[in-house]
Amino acid sequence: MTPSPARYPERVSERVGETGFAGFGDHALDFYLGIEADNSKAYWSAHRHVYDRDVREPMEALLAELTAEFGDFGAPKVFRPYRDVRFARDKTPYKTHCGAVFERGRGGGAFYVAVSADGLRVGGGSFHLAPDQLRRYRVAVADERRGTDLERLLADLTRCDWDIHGELLKTAPRGFGADHPRLALLRRRALYVSRADPPDDLVFQPGAVEWVRSAWRRIRALNEWMADHVGVPAESQPSGRY
To answer: What's the domain count of the chain?
Structure first.
């Protein structure tokens, strides 16, 4: 599962964090196993209380614990559980994970976390780049100093078991030669990384917040590169969807 936040995020309530994060609920993963088997309104309605208690409320508490360190990238948001099916072939109505994010504008760098039947996944970077952002990204990648810095950041992450994602053009983008030393990065239309599964049953324990915190610290340099060299989209341009 790669990060795929919903279109309409909800801000985390200010009331969250009074008791701290104690782990996701005992039935969080079972809830998503059920959604995978029966993605229907009937299942959702019958188990909504499990989602609220074991998934949504712990996710809000986890974000509240992380806000002091990562809130400079924006207010934390938990994404809604409903899929946008208007243009999708798959018309199943509910997401099979609960995702949340701190994001500095759309595409300007983000810290992402999700829980699903497979456990926890963390990620970060730019999940979507508007046209003006994509132009700035390519200019920065083509620059020897900035592009080399990005290559080094990504190499360090892949050595630590992070996976690199982002739509790839089949050929070099217009204006760049096929022999460019950073052609693989120039072909990206988005750039983000992810990593899955903390060990054992950590998802149900308070220590999960420290696993997420440590992982996000590893990708802060990537997000700061995106914030510095890509930035947020121009107001006149559509923000796009993940």
So the answer is: 1
Model pLDDT for residues 8-22, shown as the tens digit of each residue? 344 444 434 345 999
Q: What is the DSSP string of 100-155?
A: EEEESSTTS-EEEEEEETTEEEEEEEES---HHHHHHHHHHHHSHHHHHHHHHHHH
The helix-helix angle for 131-142 and 208-229 (nearest 10°) equals: 90
Instruction: Calculate ∠ Cα 168-174-177, nearest 5°.
Output: 90
Predicted confidence band at 65 (pLDDT cuts at 50, 70, 90)? Answer: very high
Question: What's the confidence (pLDDT) of residue 89?
Answer: 82
In a domain, 138, yes or no: yes
* 47 domain-assigned: yes
> Residue 238's pLDDT is what?
41
d(CA 185, CA 150): 9
240 occurs within a structural domain? no
CATH code of the domain containing 65: 3.30.930.20
Cβ burial of 213 (10 Å; 0-12, 13-18, 19+) is middle
Tokens of 133: 């952002």
Q: Could you tell me how far CA 76 lies from the centroid of its own chain?
A: 12
Q: Give which of 205, 217, 218, 211 is closest to 20, Cα–Cα.
A: 205
Q: What is the mean pLDDT of residues 93-114?
A: 92
- To which H or E segment does residue 68 belong? helix 57-70
In this structure, the number of other CB atoms found within 10 A of the CB of residue 151 comes to 15
Assigned domain for 126 exists: yes
Do residues 106 and 130 lie in contact, with contact meaning Cβ atoms separated by under 8 Å? Answer: yes
What is the residue range of 103's domain?
Answer: 9-229
